[in-house]
Amino acid sequence: MDQAAFERVRERLAGITGEAAVSHGVLVLEIDSGRLLEVVHALKGEFGFDLFLDVTAVDWPQREPRFDVVWHFYSTRDFVRVRVKTRVPLADPVVDTLITLYGSARYMERECHDMYGIVFRGNDDLRPILLYEGFEGHPLRKDYPKHREQPLVPYRDAGP
Amino acid sequence: MSAQPARPAPSGAFEFLTTKKDEFVGWARKFSLFPYPFVTACCAMEFMSVSSTLYDTDRFGAALPRFTPRQSDLLMVVGTVTHKQAPILRKVYEQMCEPKWVIAFGVCATSGGFYQNYAALPGIDKIIPVDLYIPGCPPRPEMVIDGIMKLQDRIARDRHPIVNERF
């Protein structure tokens, strides 16, 4: 990794998001969910984070707000990674979509919606992508019963 | 004008043999398995190994894979089947003509293996009848060959419904 570029990004981001932590060589920015578009717009436009890697979530069942939504970006110019985290509550698990900035966010947000039930405001196509139509619940939430199955084909009678 | 063709001289070799009809049909069928590889996961690597030159299921008359269920009579389910995939497996099975046999290849097809969650079907026998289970993650080629031979033994010993009072 280009250490100078890393420090440059770190310093300049500090003005936008407060102090940026470093975890295993990744810049970590914790932000309010309302500032997401502003921060990501700056990351892409000013700092060259041109590759959208993934969006996922973390379920903390004992915590309020319960979910972390986590984005990862990569700069193919400076070889720097950045992680953006924000918190959303169970009652209103909504964040803004990034499809206006990164087209590939469209599918990844669908997966995150499948697994955690995070709603991406502005993404009008949140149909199941890995799950199937009719699947109830969000299987990677901690309160999804781990043995609950929702078969599409009725099971045969188990003969002797 | 010409004389009747002469009867061929007796050669001394067998000119006919007698057998039971079921055994005869079973013998013909057991060396004529046409597998449909329903291959979904990493067991595919082992399937390729067992069906190609080194282990060579062609020796058992079970090599030529047909990629349409309508031309095959042995459904080999190789790998994990998810709930999302289950309707497809069911449809493939139903498209195959009788007589047909099903092999669950590997532990995931047998019982779901180490997948016990929202996504995986815990064994394909939950939705289609299975004739032979080959455990292992993945099974060794020797186990697959042993399984095919066991299935062949069973086919050879089966009653075959085409053998009826009119035949």
Structural write-up:
The complex is a heterodimer of chains A (160) and B (167). Chain A has 160 residues and is an alpha/beta fold. Chain A has a single domain (3-121), classed as Beta Polymerase, domain 2 (2-Layer Sandwich), CATH 3.30.460.80. Chain A has three helices and seven strands, in the order αββαββββαβ. Chain A has helices at 3-17, 36-45, 105-116; strands at residues 21-23, 26-30, 51-59, 67-75, 80-88, 94-96, 119-121. The longest helix of chain A is centred in the first third of the chain and has 15 residues, at 3-17. Chain A starts with a helix and ends in a 39-residue tail after the last strand. The model of chain A has no long low-confidence stretch (mean pLDDT 86). With 167 residues, chain B is an alpha/beta fold. In chain B, helix 3 links the parallel strand 2 (74-78) and strand 3 (101-105). A four-stranded parallel sheet of chain B has the order 1-2-3-4. Chain B has one domain (33-157): Rossmann fold (3-Layer(aba) Sandwich). The radius of gyration of chain B is 21 Å and the shape is elongated. Chain B has helices at residues 21-30, 43-51, 86-95, 107-111, 141-157; strands at 35-39, 74-78, 101-105, 132-134.
Show the helix and strand layout:
The complex is a heterodimer of chains A (160) and B (167).
Chain A (H helix, E strand, L loop, with lengths): L2 H15 L3 E3 L2 E5 L5 H10 L5 E9 L7 E9 L4 E9 L5 E3 L8 H12 L2 E3 L39
Chain B lengths: L20 H10 L4 E5 L3 H9 L22 E5 L7 H10 L5 E5 L1 H5 L20 E3 L6 H17 L10
Parallel strand pairs in B: 1-2, 2-3, 3-4
Helix pairs in contact in B: 1-5, 2-5
